[in-house]
Amino acid sequence: MPETTELYLLNGHAFDGEFAKLGVFDSFDRFRHVLLLSVGLVKLDLTIADAAATGIMESDSELLLHKVCGAARRLTRASAASVAIVGDHGNVDDIATAGLDELAARDFWGSLVRHGDHPARAVLERGTVVHGVNPGGNPTAIHLPPSHPPVHSYLFVPVASPSHVYGCLGIVEKAETEAFSVEDIEVGSSLGALAGVAYENVRRAAHVQAQEKNTDVVLSATRTAVLYYDLDSPWVDVSRSTAELFGLSPDVRRVKPEDLLKRVHPDDAPLVRAAVAKAIGDCSEFAVEFRHAVGEEQVRWLHFRGRVVSNEPGQPWRMFALVTDVTPQYQLGLQLGRWQRMDALSQIARGLAHDLNNLLTPIVGYGRFALESISDPSQRHDMEAIVKAADRAAALTKQLLAFSRRHTVAATVLDLNGLIGDMTSTLRATLGTGIDLLTSLTAAVPYVRADRSQLEQVIMALVANAADAVRIPGQIRVATKTVDVDESTAGLFSGLNPGAYVVLSVVDNGSGMTEATKARLFEPFFTTKPRGRAAGLGLATVYGIIIQSGGGIQVESKVGRGSTFTVYLPREHAPSPAAYQHVEPPPALDAPTVLLVEDDDAVRELIRRFLERAGYHVVEAATAVDAVTLFDYMTSVDVLLTDISIPGGSGFALSQTLVERRPSLRVLFMSAYADASDLAAVAERGAALLEKPFSAEALLSKVRETLSGRDRIGSRSLLGNDKKPSSLH
């Protein structure tokens, strides 16, 4: 062996595959010691690296510390070694041993916290190495239990990274000699430094892993995928949530771009390709929505947005993107659009019904006048046909008003089961042979508040609609149940509030509907039946009645799998008392005077004729201002008969002004349509409402009721709650 020896070592892991010069030595023992130490450190380093590669470090720091203890014991030829990791608050968090009883190790490291004279305290407080000898070998001198074998030498080194001391590595009882050598101290220090860096990496890896898990939870909960794509790579790196969103294997973290594009709806794929290509060409942001087919039938809407960034030369380099499932928002937008469209259509229907009612009132009225004077059979037949057609048109306007939720109803508390039971025989007769009608009614009495005739119309229309879709032999099931609707369910309906509801469902095994048909199902005049077979108002009327009753309606249907119409109606807990039957008084002997206020000339003239034929005195006005002027000159007025909507003000304001001047005045309102606020205003004033078109009999009956005091406004407040007097004069 020459006087000096140079030692080189190939360490592929630590030195990136290059030979590293470890030193120049002047003795063989020194050479041998450093060689063994280097090989041992490399083995330990590679062991830790392998542990990290297999994921052990990320999940098991205890295994890492045990490897350090074993290496320290072997390389220094000591009888025992132990590592303690001390937390920020001075508590011993982790302990590992080699050649030392674990209970003894815990007692030893526990005394480090309790006793200020512990030999390893300087290691934690100052990060220095502590070593020495223990003459006599008494273990208690260095805070080991008395039962421990004698310890004549000890070495304590910090387990530390360059930035933080995590704990202490203790090595005791050097074999064959009384003290640890300088080389042993170097070995221990190297092991402590290596363990400190590795432990810090373990903590960081655990922290990163926890953050990744939290991120995965958030991304999964929000149904959002994260994509990273190096443009020169054949792979796209994806988050765990991407697998859930696109139906990939749960372990997939890399996927080819074309595999993702395969999951885009064929009609939307060109749009996605164009948006991404433009962003790559411009190094810009992009945003596009596309459909993603899940299974055979379900389609989800995804929002794809991201940015393409460039490298230092300015060339497109990498794409960062998010893909978010926006199906709930899209469905909500569709539903909102339907609600808005239905509301707009209801306003149109309301206006149309108003005009039709004003036109039909004189047609029906004069037609009946004509019938009284026609004796020729053929002419009478023609006039009867005219009146009958006008009556059908009047019924049509009622359907329009029901759709627009403006039809006046006589709501009472009804037993829905009882109503269905009363209708069952009629429904079966309507269906005829070949279609079975089944009922499944809840045991609890399902009370609802509704207009009986309208609710019958709803059930009849839904069953008739189901019958049109069913092929013979077929089946229709009518069912009821009671449910409590929460906020999330209520949000699926327009105007539905959380609470207790009765559910009416009509289920058929017919042909089902497409999504396009479902989208327009409740629109007025929409029908899938052949032209001339239906007016298209059946389901539109159902929709209006249900909404007016404070409920909601939902349709589920698939082509070839039938349809289910589900109606929600607010649940009541007690039936209404029987209505009081009033006996009509005989007409007054003295002819009363009626102040008639109506802006439509034809309607006003017809009403005047109705009243005068019955013996009433009539004074006419076309506007509110004219009515006030005439009223001031009249010495006697018994009844104010006014339309709710009149030029120069409203019928309510006019009645308020006139009753203030003459409290004995009685008021009867009329309207071609009346909304909920109008009905409330009429009820608040204790008055009655007459809907157009009306017959002479209906008009005269209401006038007699008003005169008799059944509907009298003078004794009640005209101002309502906190309302100021009208400005009419």
What does this structure look like?
With 729 residues, the chain is an alpha+beta fold. The protein folds into five domains: 152 residues, Beta-Lactamase (2-Layer Sandwich); 104 residues, Beta-Lactamase, CATH 3.30.450.20; 60 residues; 161 residues, Histidine kinase-like ATPase, C-terminal domain (Heat Shock Protein 90); 116 residues, Response regulator (Rossmann fold). It contains 22 helices and 27 strands. Strands 14, 15, 16, 17, 18, 19 and 20 form a seven-stranded mixed beta sheet that branches. It is elongated. It starts with a strand and ends in a 21-residue tail after the last helix.
Indicate the topology.
Layout: E1 5-10, H1 12-15, E2 19-25, H2 28-53, H3 56-59, H4 61-76, E3 78-86, E4 92-98, H5 102-114, H6 121-126, E5 130-133, E6 153-160, E7 165-174, H7 182-221, E8 224-230, E9 236-238, H8 240-246, E10 254-255, H9 257-261, H10 269-282, E11 285-294, E12 298-310, E13 316-325, H11 327-373, H12 377-403, E14 412-415, H13 416-431, E15 435-440, E16 447-450, H14 452-469, E17 474-485, H15 487-490, E18 499-508, H16 515-519, H17 538-548, E19 552-557, E20 563-572, E21 593-597, H18 601-613, E22 617-621, H19 624-633, E23 639-643, E24 645-646, E25 649-650, H20 651-661, E26 666-671, H21 676-684, E27 688-691, H22 696-708
Parallel strand pairs: 15-17, 21-22, 21-23, 23-26, 26-27
Antiparallel strand pairs: 1-2, 3-4, 3-7, 5-6, 6-7, 8-9, 8-13, 9-10, 11-12, 12-13, 14-16, 16-20, 17-18, 18-20, 19-20, 24-25
Helix pairs in contact: 2-4, 2-7, 4-7, 7-8, 11-12, 11-18, 12-17, 13-14, 14-17, 19-20
